[in-house]
Request: fold
Amino acid sequence: MEHITRIGMDTSKQIFQLHGVNAVEEPVLRKKLRRKEMVRFFEELPPTEVAIEACGSSHHWARLLQSLGHEVKLIPPQFVKPYVKRNKNDAADAEALCEAVSRPTMRFVPAKTAEQQAALMLVGVRERLVRNRTQLSNAIRGYAAEFGVTASKGLCRIDQLLERIATDDTLPALARELFAIHGKEYRQLQAQLEKIEARLMAWHRANACSQRLAEIPGIGPIGASMLVMKTPAPETFRSGRHYAAWLGLTPKDHSTAGKSRLGGITRAGDEALRSVLVVGSTSVLHRVRQRGTGSPWLIDLLKRKPPKLAAVALANKNARIAWKLMVSGERYRTNPTPIANPNTGFSPPRRALQARSC
Reply:
């Protein structure tokens, strides 16, 4: 076989489509292989560059092929699509991957380790449990309202509501029995969630970067852990704005003919991570509006913009600060003392960052 310099591999559960080119960009490999055949093929192939579309299983294949001596590059799907020439099929996708990886300005996704994927699984399990608990609590409240039984807002009121229902003889026995089943399921979900959050907090305390990020107002331990786990490699972003854009917190750009047209935020990137940042910013705004004190920038923003828009703006700012802390190893400081210049007597503006080693 002629020497292959680059391969694009379209993956699936069992079928893998390969497209390879030689040193002069001529196609020399078009092959469809099953799972075991694909592994044997790369075991016998000399080290080469392999492009894979970033997906759920791509990090596993990247680790496997790297252990065989190949250089693996993961490409986001939206960056591969423009290179698909016409119809969408496995062969066209593999060819598009092979061409996309050759572009000098292409962006790649760092391959995650198994430990990183396990940590992300911890976050995913928590999200699912929170979602299930919310769904179940809403169902309990809805069924109770049908019998004229209501409770105040808050998850802490669910147990009280179930206790009232259990002792209410005016309700049918079947209804009380079904509410008891709901209550048992709710308590099981609550216990599982407490265990997962305890594991997550233990991970947070063991990670120095996560502890530093948690010091930013609006980013607690959960948000800091998610930032560290879900950010692929902070140094790959050119600036904090690029990081905020990756999170989907920057405006859509529809500019043309010299006219700038900016829309709402793009909502790109990880939805859960963006949601945590916005919710944390909302809590900060709530405290500022209640107390009337806070950052002058934030107070001035609230005078000019609606609260929801201000929350997104603060989330954008926090994302940029978090990127800076992750890249530089600095520590967030809320109220540093300005140091006056001995020559001019001028005190420089307060800085939010303090250089400190990890």
Residues 173-206 form the longest helix (34 residues). The chain has 13 helices and nine strands. The chain has three domains: 6-100, 114-206, 210-332.
